[in-house]
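Hi support team,

I've been running sequence recovery on a batch of backbones for a student project. Most finish fine, but this one hangs at about 90% for roughly twenty minutes before it completes. I'm not sure whether the input is malformed or the queue is just slow. I've pasted the structure tokens below so you can try to reproduce it. Let me know if you need the job ID as well.

Thanks,
M.K.
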């Protein structure tokens, strides 16, 4: 008989009544690979599909069945679903560079919308009707109020957010027409790395603030730009909600038990609910590394709202979601551990110049 609980960082957690065969598409990417590890830890049996355009094969344990394939190949998807008797699919396979989505929208609609439609068609053909979707707070657009709740109007302002919003609408239609049960998890700024430092964030190009600041102190960047210092915030820089990648992963798994009823539609915001400014992120990296981050001030970027942060009460109350990395400092510590021990990331891309990381004992006073 399966156990009635699983073990997390802080001991027993949410009940899982049965282990599942789970297909993780985009499972070699940043968030997907962390979720694969969480699935294994909780007794589930993950199978990974990733085309490795942005993912890393080394981020997935060799013991996990892995297929280098595109979601748009319906025949391949059906074969994998049948071979492994998949019961639930998790989707992490979207492209997520906002600026690129504006200049190359077809790339985003093809990968983020058209390809998942083929996957969903294959799922329904195989009788698989449980789907966990990695969505985004970008579906909300510029917020009317903060913190953001799940009932906030969705008005995406770029093709990336629009492609995610469009797929949410497809899922709603399939819930009504075919009894698909799904959860759309709209999360904020994923950050950090696994506590043991085995896997972490390795994007090319990198656009996220925490790894950029770490790259600067490691000698891989001349400076970090701070875009705008005149926002109506305590220190004049943008406020964002940073949530640890393992906390995100646990939330994805917690929804499994909520998808038993055909046609279930669930929506959750995933963030800590605590906003941190750009300057606070820089300070946290300086504290973790013991080194000064070189910054330059730059004008505001078009479309950057002053603040974006979540009201996470629905996920906490309905899923029993417990955030294990509640502070920016705890998140950045894991990121520093990963980057300082893996200066080339997964070492499967072009080499980066690296200055020798200084000991934390030489911390700036």
């Amino acid at each position: 008989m399966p156990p009635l609980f699983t073990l997390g960082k802080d001991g027993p957690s949410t009940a899982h009544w049965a282990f599942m065969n789970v297909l993780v598409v985009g499972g070699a990417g940043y968030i997907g690979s962390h979720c694969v590890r969480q699935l294994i830890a909780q007794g589930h049996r993950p199978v990974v599909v990733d085309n490795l355009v942005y993912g890393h094969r080394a981020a997935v344990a060799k013991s996990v069945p892995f297929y280098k394939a595109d979601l748009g190949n319906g025949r391949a998807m059906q074969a994998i679903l049948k071979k492994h008797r998949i019961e639930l699919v998790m989707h992490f396979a979207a492209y997520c560079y906002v600026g690129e989505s504006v200049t190359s929208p077809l790339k985003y609609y093809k990968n983020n919308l058209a390809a998942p439609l083929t996957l969903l068609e294959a799922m329904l053909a195989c009788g698989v009707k449980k789907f966990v979707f990695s969505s985004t707070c970008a579906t909300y657009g510029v917020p009317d109020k903060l913190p953001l709740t799940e009932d906030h109007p969705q008005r995406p302002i770029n093709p990336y957010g629009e492609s995610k919003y469009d797929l949410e609408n497809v899922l709603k239609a399939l819930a009504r027409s075919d009894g698909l049960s799904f959860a759309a998890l709209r999360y904020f700024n994923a950050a950090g790395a696994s506590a043991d430092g085995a896997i972490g964030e390795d994007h090319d190009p990198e656009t996220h603030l925490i790894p950029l600041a770490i790259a600067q102190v490691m000698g891989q960047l001349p400076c970090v730009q701070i875009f705008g210092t005149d926002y109506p915030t305590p220190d004049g820089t943008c406020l964002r909600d940073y949530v640890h990648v393992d906390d995100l992963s646990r939330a994805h798994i917690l929804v499994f038990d909520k998808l038993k009823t055909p046609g279930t539609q669930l929506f959750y915001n995933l963030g800590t609910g605590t906003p941190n400014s750009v300057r606070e992120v820089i300070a946290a990296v300086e504290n973790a590394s013991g080194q000064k981050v070189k910054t330059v001030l730059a004008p505001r970027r078009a479309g950057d709202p002053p603040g974006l942060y979540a009201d996470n009460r629905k996920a906490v109350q309905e899923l029993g979601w417990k955030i294990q990395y509640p502070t920016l400092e705890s998140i950045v510590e894991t990121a520093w551990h990963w980057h300082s021990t893996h200066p080339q990331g997964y070492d499967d891309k072009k080499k980066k110049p690296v200055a020798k990381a200084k000991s934390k004992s030489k911390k700036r006073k």
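--
Follow-up from support: It reproduced on our side and the slowdown came from queue contention, not your input. The radius of gyration is 20 Å. No action needed from you.
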